[in-house]
């Protein structure tokens, strides 16, 4: 009982310090507070002021493995977004996780890495591992447990047309493509 009460009190204090205006305590213990809050207890105002996506993204993955003869075998691209969409399309009660896990992982990755794919902080490293592990799990499930040592992601981004805009009056917008570097995948997913 005491442990439960202490944990609850610690959680409330740390979340309060995270959402409170900057002060001496939150400045001094910022890394420890963020380590507790992210990624499980992230605070944002999207519930009250959602920011709908203004783009359509397709996240694709391919894998590579070393064959017994030493040659590298690269798979074809798997459209992870299409797999998620098909899991939601005819489901009467679709999972929030199925709908948003990959999309939110990508958004968090971009927020921490920018356009150069460099990991400059512990949070950036964590978000890279998070995205890599989600993609590796999805590809392994899609390929019935196929083994691979590396994974690469490609993200295609296409802007959503403004509501009410006449389709014939605007030039087509080309898709933006982002190819991430190859990431090593271990059997345990780390």
TrEMBL record:
InterPro entries: DUF5819
Organism annotation: Streptomyces roseus
Residues making up the signal peptide according to the UniProt record: 1-24
Protein's name according to its UniProt entry: Uncharacterized protein
Key words, A-Z: Signal
């Amino acid at each position: 009982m005491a442990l439960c009460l202490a944990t609850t009190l610690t959680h409330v204090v740390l979340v309060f310090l995270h959402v409170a205006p900057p002060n001496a305590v939150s400045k001094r213990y910022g890394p420890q507070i963020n380590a507790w809050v992210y990624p499980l207890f992230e605070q944002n105002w999207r519930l009250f002021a959602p920011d709908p996506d203004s783009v359509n993204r397709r996240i694709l993955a391919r894998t590579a493995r070393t064959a017994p003869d030493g040659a590298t075998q690269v798979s074809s691209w798997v459209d992870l977004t299409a797999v998620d969409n098909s899991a939601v399309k005819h489901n009467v009660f679709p999972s929030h996780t199925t709908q948003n896990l990959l999309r939110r992982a990508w958004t968090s990755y971009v927020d921490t890495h920018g356009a150069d794919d460099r990991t400059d902080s512990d949070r950036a490293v964590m978000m890279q591992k998070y995205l890599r592990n989600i993609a590796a799990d999805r590809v392994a499930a899609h390929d019935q447990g196929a083994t691979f040592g590396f994974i690469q992601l490609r993200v295609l981004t296409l802007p959503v047309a403004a509501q009410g805009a006449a389709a014939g009056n605007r030039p087509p917008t080309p898709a933006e493509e982002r190819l991430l570097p190859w990431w090593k995948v271990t059997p345990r997913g780390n």
